[in-house]
Design brief:
This protein is mainly alpha-helical. It is built from 14 helices and no strands.
């Protein structure tokens, strides 16, 4: 039971993190927002690691964290770009495609093929994305074209694909070590990488970030909660359940979009997001 609660809380923390990023990035550089949230997460992680202790770390951990790091560098830069361009309620539902991508990666990676339920889940996700970008035109292809033309949605679709790759490494790295160690090591390596990238491409934004200290601290706390809750959930229940419940972040984001950002077309977007979440759950549990 605790694993399910942790996974749902992960979804809420994730939605809170993305909403805070969306709120802050309007007047900030993408590179500064790629660096400082990670840096402000580290103190919470280091304290947790100190209290719990460092586990025995196999050498192969440091080999497998490299592809994890590369994937998450690109994912971070892309979702920051997406939130610069698109509404939260348009961008976040694209993350429902992560389990779908995992479904089609399985035959290539481990030789596992989807079930009939998995195909039903795919249908729900595709239908939800269709409704999300639908307009009054009679051209049936327009919603799919709109999803690609809307750069924010398009970038988040790529992020969903990258997260599918990263998810296969996450559970493996947590099992090798511990939730706290992998959370700390992952965020530490990301923050250092982003700092180097930021100094290379936008030095001024890194040295003089246009973001208040208290906002960065709040974002860091939200990210810390997302990472820790998700990794601990992976210890109690299998990854498909964690992924499906974590995607409730899409629905939580609808609430943030309405109350915090006053975004429009909420009724249509909630229906679309609900279809996509149902598809995600079907794929994750039965696919």
């Amino acid at each position: 039971m605790i694993g399910y609660i942790l996974a749902i809380l992960t979804g809420f923390a994730s939605a809170s993190y993305y909403a805070l990023i969306k709120k802050t990035i309007k007047n900030a550089s993408i590179f500064s927002m790629a660096v400082y949230p990670y840096l402000f997460t580290l103190p919470f992680l280091f304290v947790s690691l100190f209290l719990i202790g460092i586990p025995i770390v196999p050498a192969k951990y440091f080999l497998f964290i490299i592809p994890w790091l590369i994937v998450n560098i690109f994912a971070t830069l892309l979702y920051l770009k997406a939130f610069k361009l698109a509404d939260l309620t348009l961008a976040m539902p694209m993350l429902a495609f992560t389990p779908l991508f995992l479904l089609f990666m399985s035959p290539l990676i481990v030789g596992e093929f989807t079930s009939l339920f998995g195909l039903v889940g795919v249908l729900f996700v595709v239908l939800g994305s269709y409704v999300l970008h639908a307009s009054k035109t009679r051209n049936l292809l327009v919603p799919f074209k709109a999803m690609i033309k809307n750069k924010g949605s398009y970038y988040m679709l790529i992020v969903a694909f990258l997260y599918a790759i990263g998810a296969s490494f996450d559970r493996m790295l947590v099992v090798m070590t511990s939730p706290v160690f992998h959370s700390t090591m992952g965020i530490f390596s990301l923050s250092l990488s982003m700092l180097v990238i930021g100094l290379l491409f936008d030095r001024e934004a890194i040295l003089k970030p246009n973001v208040a200290f208290n906002k960065l601290l709040l974002i860091g706390l939200a990210l810390f909660s997302t990472v820790m809750l998700g990794n601990f959930a992976n210890k109690f229940i299998i990854a498909p359940y964690v992924i499906s419940l974590k995607r409730l972040s899409i629905l939580f984001s609808m609430i943030y979009g309405y109350y915090w950002f006053k975004e429009k077309d909420l009724k249509k977007r909630i229906i679309a997001a609900s279809l996509m979440v149902v598809g995600t759950i079907i794929i994750s549990i039965y696919g």
